[in-house]
Amino acid sequence: MPAARLLDLTRIVSRLGRGPLTGVDRVELAWLDHLIEGEAHSGLPLFALVRMADGFALLDGPGARAVAALARGADLPAADLRGRLGRRRDPLRARAETAVRRLARAQTPMPLLGWMLARHVPPDTPYFNVGHANLTPQVLGAMRGQVVVLVHDTIPLDYPQFTRPDIPMVFGRKMAAVSGRADLVVHSTAAARQATERHFARMGRVPPAVVAPLGVDVPAPGRFPDLPGLDPRRPWFLAIGTIEPRKNHALLLDVWEQLATRLAPNQMPQLVIAGSRGWRNEAVFRRLDARPPHVIEVADLSDPALAALLYRSHGLLFPSHAEGFGLPPVEAAALGVPAYLSDLPVFHEVLGDYPVYLPVDAVYSWVETIAAVLAGGERANSPDGGVGGMKPALALPGWDTHFNAVLRNVR
User: Can you give the residue ranges of the Glycosyl transferase family domain (predicted)?
Assistant: First the structure.
């Protein structure tokens, strides 16, 4: 049993004040909650590391608990002078780092990270990095205990066309640092492990690894959101995720255009696109700005509101080109909501035969499938209640299974 645990919280701090956490952010928060619980029940001290504009901050257990509260919506303070100077172009990050400074047990310039950790953190404390931040030789080399890294996917290396131009090179450097220093790499699926270790082998070292599927915390559906343009008496399908090229929203817009050529306006389903706008997707943004009929775009829904929208939908549409795990389809399955997914190995591994799998670029197949669902009349949305899952909810591994799979390998 280690003397303490050290969790990197840089990712969550960078997201404070920006709306509901998604994807990797939620995984980091789940780890934070688990280690907070471990400190409370077993007395195993928790520390947290945050990279700031001018160095690093170290938090103890109370500080980490305060960050968890901030991640769930507690108010951020006004930015102090250091925050305003260090994050001139990012006022929210300035406020978040001001909060961290007030909570910090210690702070140090970047070159003295090892000294700060040696002074304040027990020796041989394992370091957990589950957010892809701070994966550098300098940071990983400053750790005196086991280095445990969760690699969510290697999409920037496998599909550089779906990322910002500078990301593949930056991400490649991160993976090289993990290859050289990590004592344990955590993968959410066997498919992700295979892809990641192919890159590690090219980099010269494949670290020890464990496959630990992510847990799923699906909130109970809350109050149905009042979305401008959505008629809750008519059927709708839901697409969840950042509007970026990899998520393939262009295909869904093509599908809705073709459906409009064969269905009367009063028979058309609605498409709700729930997600913030991302990058390198100007053509899709222009199409959305033109307000295509029967398409509703919404961002920053709360988890309960999103769950209510999903629960009463005719299904989740997820034609992604690539995923490391894919939380929205898993959450749909946990609610018993039909899922129509691109035919990716990772979805077969996690969800088996629960979804309907469709070719990622075959508009015709998606049109025919959605038309058949509508013709079947299997779901009847009502304005005053949830219709429930059309399928039996799929039993999926919980977070305890994930944590146990990882922590039994930690010294």
Answer: 231-380
